[in-house]
Amino acid sequence: MSTLRFPDAEALADLGTFVARARSLDADGAIRLQAQGLALAAYVGVLPGRGLMAEGAVLGMRVMPLAEPAELDTTVPLAGITDRLARTGTADARSLDVPPTTVSAGWAAVAPPRQGWERVGELPTAALKAVATQGIEEIAHGAPTGSGGHAVTSLRERVWSRMAETVPPVPAGAAFAAYALGFLGGGDAAVFMHGRWTRVSTSAGHVLLR
């Protein structure tokens, strides 16, 4: 069993908050944990994308410090992390035993690039929040209670795949992910490109799209 050791209880609680927000979007979702040295990158899927390679998938990512070097790359159920955190005692509130049960997630099959990103602009976080809330309202009104699952899925894909009227433009799904995961505080969000990848970054986290 792998154990990740964090510098303090707040760092571990930060992971717990990230997992809780991701589970509010998909209670049965997964999280990819990539530890290298003293940094842990945690990825969650926000929008699933299409096909075997999950084209159009939208991911959320948080980077957290570790107190001890670790090497790890595994994808586990979000629920497994929640259970582990719930059992963490106050005497060892800085350690997480990684669940041994792994899962397969289409969005986790292709890792985003770590280097070579080109900064292409900035967006006010308020603008991203507006795009997200407008999309949520559109889906709520366009898919009332009783709508079939296929109709709802199709509407969500249309709303979140279209480009927002921002400069630079980003898919509306990026705004939704940043809003849902609590990444939109004050200030601006930086927008980066790398080939087919787009990244929207704030001080609270990153949204990645391909």
From TrEMBL:
<feature type="domain" description="DUF8185">
    <location>
        <begin position="112"/>
        <end position="210"/>
    </location>
</feature>
<protein>
    <submittedName>
        <fullName>Uncharacterized protein</fullName>
    </submittedName>
</protein>
<dbReference type="InterPro" id="IPR058498">
    <property type="entry name" value="DUF8185"/>
</dbReference>
<dbReference type="Pfam" id="PF26035">
    <property type="entry name" value="DUF8010"/>
</dbReference>
<dbReference type="Pfam" id="PF26572">
    <property type="entry name" value="DUF8185"/>
</dbReference>
<dbReference type="InterPro" id="IPR058323">
    <property type="entry name" value="DUF8010"/>
</dbReference>
<feature type="domain" description="DUF8010">
    <location>
        <begin position="2"/>
        <end position="93"/>
    </location>
</feature>
